[in-house]
From TrEMBL:
Organism: Breznakiella homolactica
Protein name as catalogued: Uncharacterized protein
Length: 115
């Protein structure tokens, strides 16, 4: 598990919660449909935004974040440690989707899956 990038903002906003698909559906021969939980608890998936300073230098906040994402998180294959988005304490997250737009600041939109 990787720590959050030093010197990069932690000011997440527009955090929206959804749950992973955790239901298994089976159709019986009679036509009746039964639903079962795949796991005891569905994973929490958050859509979040983060504004990062970008002056197109290697040291700018946006480029440091992207370097961390590519080299340390390996494009979302590794997990990172961050404040829980729904309560107190810390949680382990995986970035499952990342897009960015704008100039300065760059708005990074991500999907985080709580582990």
């Amino acid at each position: 598990m990787i720590q959050w990038m030093e010197g990069v903002s932690k000011k997440i906003y527009d955090a929206a919660l959804q749950f992973s698909d955790n239901v298994e559906t089976v159709e019986m021969k009679s036509g009746k449909i039964k639903r079962y939980l795949k796991n005891s608890a569905a994973r929490r998936i958050y859509s979040v935004k983060l504004d990062l300073a970008n002056d197109n230098t290697p040291e700018c906040e946006y480029n440091r974040f992207m370097d961390w994402y590519e080299k340390y998180l390996r494009y979302g294959t590794e997990t990172f440690y961050f404040n829980k988005l729904n309560s107190h304490g810390y949680a382990e997250y995986t970035i499952t989707r990342l897009t960015s737009d704008g100039q300065n600041p760059k708005t990074v939109t991500m999907e985080w899956e709580e582990q």
